[in-house]
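ligand=cytidine-5'-monophosphate
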Amino acid sequence: MKRVAPAKINLSLEILRRRADGFHDLRSLFLPIALVDELTFSASDVFTFTCSDPSVPVDEENLVVRAARLFGHGELPPVRIHLEKKIPHSAGLGGGSSDAATTLLALNDLAETPRPLADLEKLAGQLGSDVPFFLHRSAAWCEGRGEIVHPVSTPVNFALLLFKPPFGVPTPWAYQKLAGSRDLPGIPMSRQQTGAGLLFNDLERPVFEKYLLLALVKKWLLEQTETWGALLSGSGSTLFAITATAAEAEAVRQRLLEEFGPDNWTCITTPWQGE
Ligand code: C5P
């Protein structure tokens, strides 16, 4: 059985307060996108997990393995799972969280007595703040620490250019540095009203302060005539730019790689519109 696990971007990310448990309350508009990982589930006598990307851990550190164990009430279920990784990690694109949610959904479909979505949401919340969102496969406003999900429909008639430098940004670090971070002079960080909605991300401040390249690339993206807007996704290190068409995104990509070098990962995609 094959399943795809879509990545996400955050069209907006407002951090409301730091909580006593160390997490932050937020309000964020999550958009699933057509960049996907692929998972294959097959019958097996024992649990096995393999991944196409050798840099991805395949032990209990991996959210797929943790999702499987949680689904099996502490036991690893007898299933073979293979993950074809397309979504870069430490990228702010939610790849690991989406793989975990997809594992819960697939194991539930294979189970003799499937559990209701509300039960899967509880398990998902234990795996990570973003995991419940990925159970819904729809754009959604996410609140609390991210686990309170309100699906919505959003405009989908645009293209996306994703840019990720060779380094990643650790999410806990970005949240820790939020208090005390400052705007960088000359870098546009105010709210952008676009055909895809209002764009802003409170995590840009701490992330741009340390990773100046990301601030410069965002500024450069906004200067291109084709772009409706540009923003850091989640805690980064991926930036996204919105254009009307894939051809326009491609034109921006060519110039972007000339300007900032071919070592950077780029991808042209669209909002997720189902399988
Ligand atoms: O929930 P998840 O494991 O994805 O979160 C990773 C880290 O990001 C947390 O340990 C915390 O430091 C930070 N975080 C936060 N507030 C959130 C989500 C994540 O502070 N709402």
